[in-house]
Design a protein that fits this description.
Elements (H helix, E strand, L loop, with lengths): L2 E2 L6 H7 L4 E2 L1 H4 L7 E6 L5 H12 L6 E6 L11 H7 E2 L1 H4 L4 E6 L15 H14 E7 L1 H11 L4 E15 L13 E11 L2 H6 L3 E7 L3 E7 L4 E4 L9 H11 L25 H17 L8
Parallel strand pairs: 1-2, 1-4, 3-4, 3-6, 4-5, 6-7, 7-12
Antiparallel strand pairs: 8-9, 8-10, 10-11, 11-12
Length: 302
């Protein structure tokens, strides 16, 4: 079924060429069904890329999906045009009286900062608390996952000796979990971060379940016991070239950076990497939307 996006969103043309089933506002208005309403708090600097990545994965769903993009009011994005933000994004004050079936909170390249040092930390805390009463299930990605673990469960991140960057093998730790239904026993996923979360702290917390992890990259997928919060420390939504773009960007800035592991063919940055995690990315988002959003959300919010 289709995903509904604004008529002139730049990602629309790209997704249509990829045969992703989308529709604009005018056609969606004629669909006599109860859509899923998904709110995306996009904290990434290159917002249009992140929009495309997430919309691609949300487009394979059992029902029409209405997307609302959210931006922070207390910090102005510097890498996205003001026109794009004003045209396609809302602030928390504009949505806080509404209810949403699902929400996604993305990562942000600020992980080396203490949470309290982040410009919009107070605003994000308010949003995180708001999700408990107004969102059926919230999916937190990378720094967004670390922020949720810190705010809701008191588990802080720690700085790694060197950046965790590359594509790593992970093991499913709980085959009964619906979120991982259809997953292979082992699967790969990209990571790109300078900080990590203690697996022991996650496993010992009475309100959390560690669902998948890697010997090399650490914890990947964490769920609250009631399944209303899903935290993923990696980036299943990444495109094939995203890690390469990040690596070359940092090299051009003169940042001392390690080459992404298990990524470039023959460890040669001149060779184009393949997307080897696409099927599990689609399965992960499909399972989340089906089992944790669609199957759990009320038909009419009270």
């Amino acid at each position: 079924m289709p995903i509904k996006i604004p008529l002139h969103l730049p990602a629309k043309e790209i997704l249509e060429k990829e045969n992703i089933f989308i529709m604009d506002d005018s056609r969606a208005a004629k669909q006599d069904i109860r859509p899923l309403n998904i709110l995306i708090l996009n904290l990434m600097p290159e917002k249009e890329k992140t929009e495309r990545q997430l919309l691609r994965l949300l487009g394979n769903t059992p029902l029409q999906v209405n997307i609302t993009f959210l931006k922070t009011a207390t910090y102005d994005a510097k890498n996205t045009s003001q026109y794009h933000l004003e045209e396609f994004y809302q602030t928390f004050n504009q949505v806080k009286e509404k209810k949403y079936d699902g929400m996604i909170i993305t990562g942000a390249p600020i992980e080396l900062m203490e949470f309290e040092e982040v410009h919009y930390w107070d605003e994000l805390k308010e949003i995180l608390d708001w999700t408990e009463r107004n969102v059926t299930s919230t999916l937190h990605i990378c720094w967004g996952a670390q922020a949720a673990l810190y705010h809701h469960y008191g588990i802080n991140k720690f700085v790694l000796a060197r950046k965790c960057s590359g594509v790593f093998t992970h093991r499913v730790l709980d085959h009964t979990e619906k979120l991982l239904r259809g997953f292979d026993d082992e699967f790969i996923a990209p990571h790109s971060r300078n900080t990590d979360i203690s697996k022991e702290a996650l496993q010992n917390h009475p309100q959390l379940k560690l669902l998948a992890s890697s010997d090399e990259a650490g914890a990947l997928i964490i769920s609250s016991k009631d399944s209303r919060r899903i935290m993923i420390t990696g980036h299943l939504e990444y495109e094939a070239t995203t890690l390469a773009e990040e690596y070359l960007r940092d090299k051009e800035k003169g940042i001392e950076i390690v080459m992404p592991e298990n990524y470039f063919p023959q460890d040669n940055p001149d060779k184009k990497p393949a997307n080897r995690w696409r099927s599990h990315a689609h399965l992960f988002f499909s399972n989340w939307l089906n089992y944790y959003v669609y199957q759990e959300t009320p038909y009419e919010w009270d």
